[in-house]
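Lab channel / #folding
Pinned by the channel admin:
"Please post every new chain as: sequence first, then the structure tokens as a reply. Keep commentary short and put observations after the output so the thread stays searchable."

First post following the new format, from NK:
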Amino acid sequence: MPLVPHLNFAGGFQSLIRSEVERAQALRRLAAGESSGDLEARGIVNKPVVNTGSTGFESGVDGILGIGPVNLTQGTLSPDINATIPTVTDNAFSQGIIPAKQIGIFFHPTFLTPVTNGELTWGGVDKSKHTGPINYTPLTTTSPASKFWGINQSIRYGGSTNILSSTAGIVDTGSTLLLLATDAYDRYRAATGAVLDSNTGLLRITPAQYKNLKSLFFTTNGVTYEFVPNAQLWPRSLNLDIGGKVGDIYLIVADLGTPSGEGLDFINGYTFLERFYTVFDTGNQRVGFAKTRFTNKNIN
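Reply from TO:
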């Protein structure tokens, strides 16, 4: 299934920053069993506002395909609020349409729009899309991350600067940025020397600081994944799309808006998925990551 990113940010990127934080808050409410209209209405299609029309979506968008775990449906039925609704993946597997309860997710970095830059593989993985082995990590048991595609992960900057000790967070196709708990975000900002840009809401660095920018290292289940400096940049060819300035250098790491230790301390969003092939494996209760030919590419 080909995927096209939505990068038409009405009102500039400040709106998306707000939407990302609001989405995270909506995810927490959803995990707590509360109804969350915000989750459906904002952020999930990687843009801040979904235009309302006769269908409730903008032109060319027919709906939202949710690929979250089945327990997210708990509490949506009445009178049996403990019942769940089979997901698309569950139904496809039970009907023999796919051989396994898996979804393979591939994106490559985007520097223009519109463009088809992604692919979903139902029931397995597309071996042509990754270059290294797929390493799996079990789903976290820490709530509220455990309600989603949650994993335990630590993050460091460069050789030894700790950004986030091992903690729970989620991998989320519906979030655009790499979101970190506020204290981790502050450590990243200090390590990079970045300043908050008032026009975009993103962190901004100088060309000299970019030359000294170091990789981020994500470690989960004993395997470390390098997120190279270029992967930490917003594509400069799309600066004007977010209300930024031509030639400025913006970072895609943003503030989650809550402190660490609350059970959902990071969101590995779309910008992370652009660099690593990802597998949501319902049958084995795990998430997998693998390198692609774009993992280390200087494209942004």
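NK: The two ends are 25 Å apart (CA to CA).
TO: also worth noting, Helices lie at 13-31, 37-41, 88-94, 182-192, 207-211, 270-273.
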